[in-house]
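Something for you to look into today, if you have time. What I am after is a single protein written out in full by you. I want to see for myself how the chain folds. Could you add the entry underneath, on a fresh line?
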Amino acid sequence: MGANLKLKGLRVSKGKTQQDIAKVLGISETAYNMKERGYREFTRPEIKKLYKFFELTPVELIDIFFADEVHAKGTKRTKPA
C-alpha cells in the first residue's frame, strides 16, 4: 500500500477532512489533495507536522512515508564471505 492510501486511511479513521489537514499544514486543500493522491511529495516540515498532529510513533511514520523506499532498496542482508 502506498503512502497516499495509508495517509488517507489514517485521516479518515480520525474523522478528519482534507481541509482539516491542509489547515494544519498551512497549504491549500487542493495542494493537500495532490499530495495525498501522490501527485506531489510532502516536504520534511509537512511530514513533521503530520507526525505531531496524528501523534504517530516513529515506526508508524516510517511505515506511512518511507516503507516503500526501504523495500525498494531491499532489506535482505547477506552474510560476509
